[in-house]
Amino acid sequence: MINEEKVYKGLAYNISRLRERHPRTEKKITQKALAESIGIKRATLTNIELGNQRAPVHVIYRICDYFGVSLEEVMPKLSDVKMQAKSSSVDIGQQKHDLPEKITAAVEKARSLNT
Question: Which DSSP helix (H) or strand (E) runs through 88?
Fold first, then answer.
């Protein structure tokens, strides 16, 4: 499962980082200049960078094009946004099994009903 909050926080961070130091010119780009160049309002860009607004996919691509970077440089890494499934061990017969939390609870409930 993907943690959406981490996706948009990572995106916001990466956009801010790119603006602070343009990969080609190594100069700082203002929100106003970037927003005008990619066809959005400065307030929209501010809200995207603050995490108050989600960037549409086409805007993300415009940002990539503006900075001349790949999508992977703008979006956070998949490994950084994946939610780790909680698991626990349960004994079934004589074997120990690692199961997701919901399944573990169901197995334990079934056991309690059988005793």
Answer: strand 87-92
| Residue 47 one-letter amino acid | N
pTM of the model: 0.70
Residue 46 C-beta-side C-alpha neighbours within 13 Å: 5
- Spatial CA neighbour of 40 closest among 17, 9, 63: 63
Match domain 4-81 to its CATH number in 2.40.280.10, 3.40.50.800, 1.20.910.10, 1.10.260.40.
Answer: 1.10.260.40
Above pLDDT 70, what percent of the chain? 76
Most confident region among 35-44, 79-88, 104-113 by mean pLDDT = 35-44
Better-scored residue on pLDDT, 93 or 56:
56
Contact indicator for 106, 115 with CB cutoff of 8 Å: no
Rounded to an integer, what distance in angstroms lies between the CA atom of residue 107 and that of residue 23? 53
Packed helices 4-20 and 42-50: angle between N→C axes, nearest 10 degrees: 120
